[in-house]
Design goal:
Layout (H helix, E strand, L loop, with lengths): L1 H15 L1 H15 L2 H81 L11 H7 L1
Length: about 130
C-alpha cells in the first residue's frame, strides 16, 4: 500500500516539477513515519510472525505423522492378520464340532435302527431267513 502511494506520488511529482515532488515525498515519509503507520506495520509483522510459527508447527506435526504412518500400517496389518488367523481357527473348530456332532447323530440313528426289531421292513415273518435258505 505504501509503495503504491509512493509510486503515485512519484508520477504526480514528476509532472508537477521537482519542488512538488519533494513536497509529496516529504508527506509520504511523514505518513510512513507516523505512529499509526508504525503500529499498523508492527501489527502486520506480529500477524505474519504468528502465521509463520503456526505454519512451522503444522509442518512439524505433518512430518511427525508421516514418520509414524509406516509403523502404524505395519502394526495394523499385523493386528488384522492375527485377527484373521484367530477367526479361521474358530471357524475350523466349529466345523470340527459340527462334523463330530453329525457323526454322533448318525451313529445314534444307526443304533436306533438296529435295535428296532418291531420294524416290519426289516423282516416280514422270517422272510429274510427263507430267502437266504433258498
Amino acid at each position: 500500500m505504501f509503495l503504491l502511494g509512493t509510486a503515485v506520488g512519484f508520477v504526480f511529482g514528476a509532472r508537477a516539477g521537482r519542488a512538488r515532488y519533494e513536497q509529496i515525498r516529504a508527506a509520504a515519509a511523514s505518513v510512513a513515519e507516523s505512529e499509526a503507520a508504525k503500529k499498523t506495520t508492527e501489527a502486520a509483522q506480529q500477524g505474519l510472525d504468528s502465521a509463520v510459527d503456526a505454519l512451522h508447527r503444522v509442518g512439524n506435526r505433518v512430518t511427525e505423522t508421516s514418520r509414524e504412518i509406516p509403523s502404524r500400517l505395519v502394526h495394523t496389518t499385523e493386528s488384522l492378520r492375527q485377527e484373521l488367523n484367530e477367526a479361521n481357527e474358530r471357524n475350523r473348530q466349529r466345523q470340527t464340532e459340527t462334523i463330530v456332532t453329525a457323526a454322533d447323530l448318525r451313529d445314534e440313528a444307526l443304533d436306533d435302527l438296529s435295535d428296532n426289531d418291531d420294524d416290519a421292513m426289516l423282516d416280514e415273518h422270517g422272510a429274510d431267513d427263507r430267502n437266504l435258505n433258498e
